[in-house]
Structure of Cell wall protein Psu1:
Amino acid sequence: MRFFETVTAALFLTGAFAAPFRHPHHLHHKRDAPAVTSQVVAYTTVVVGGSSSGSPISSSSTVTPTSSSAPTGPSSSSSSYASSSSTTSSSAAAPSSTGGTSSFTDGVYDCSSFPSDQEGIVALDYLGLGGYTGIQIGNGAGSSCTEGAYCSYACKPGMMKTQWPSEQPSDGETRGGLVCKNGKLHRTNTDKENLCEQGLGSASVENKLGQGVAICQTDYPGSENMVIPTFVEGGNSSPLTVTDNNSYFHWRGMGTSAQFYVNKAGYSAEKGCQWGTQNDDFGNWAPLVFGAGMTDGITWLSIFQNPLTTQKANYNVKIVGENGSNVSGDCTFENGSFTSGSNGCTVGVTSGSAKFVFY
Ligand SMILES: *[C@@H]1O[C@H](CO)[C@@H](O)[C@H](O)[C@H]1NC(C)=O
Ligand SMILES: *[C@@H]1O[C@H](CO)[C@@H](O)[C@H](O)[C@H]1NC(C)=O
Ligand SMILES: *[C@@H]1O[C@H](CO)[C@@H](O)[C@H](O)[C@H]1NC(C)=O
Ligand SMILES: *[C@@H]1O[C@H](CO)[C@@H](O)[C@H](O)[C@H]1NC(C)=O
């Protein structure tokens, strides 16, 4: 049995700064088994609103089911993106001597061979998708990178993928990654030579716990599988990807930010950064969600309770400015609740950088 679930999480965070900040819309496809087709079972819109005077901390939350439909047959939707995979000529070129690692050459890699020599890219073999984070074929999910599929990938912590088609389906779902054409991998965004690029560098994670924490970024735009790992061992630190609202993926014209599911301490990336079910406490059912995005020079960092679950994180976590940085607001989850009194909080980093500290 499999079922699909779609969650649109739109976090509207309003603060002391003039412009409202918008977190990404995510359509979360839940699948229990490799899927051939993907259907939406339920839409849930999560609106975290807050117009607090003098503080960028959002304070209220509502969870509103907005629509649901449960198609059982194969989807027949014709998607606009599909045509983009069947256009243009193929180079069918023989593999070049060496593509180098920092610049991707279209039409060289077989679709089934994950381009693991590319700078910053991370093969997630344990997902069973040939190293990819997600395979999108038509309106469904695939298990290998085959003709016409979008084959997406993870980048190292702090980095982000550069590849998604500029033309996106009108239904609000997104496509991302490389595209498989004539048996070879091609970029979907030829403006970028590298498959991964550095994020803004204005956030990191410090883990003062005795156990590791698996932080799982949603692959967006794309499958929205929350499988891109930032695993931080106890006692260690790591960069955390921050995207720029102005230049990263725009959903229906609106800027988006990076979103992460944050597991209880003790879960590995292999276990924690995968789809869970309602009975689990990991992956999309992990207790906390982090957001990280910059708008007009201000990095907004947030911690929220995952609206899907009432399970609590088994640690404390707070956002702390780095030396010499300027952070507006306080965001602390301690002893099972947010000191803001609500189910989440946000800070604005106006200069420098800040870290999420697990303690
Ligand atoms: C984020 O980017 C979008 C698209 O450019 C823009 O409309 C929006 O105003 C930006 N958000 C803020 C808070 O500036
Ligand atoms: C922050 O700055 C203070 C004073 O300059 C210094 O003593 C301290 O070690 C710094 N902390 C870190 C983490 O760099
Ligand atoms: C920090 O921000 C405050 C208010 O936003 C501002 O007055 C102050 O000059 C800033 N400090 C630095 C070091 O940027
Ligand atoms: C959390 O618990 C510790 C230990 O009991 C206590 O020192 C601390 O003040 C508590 N924090 C909050 C925000 O209540």
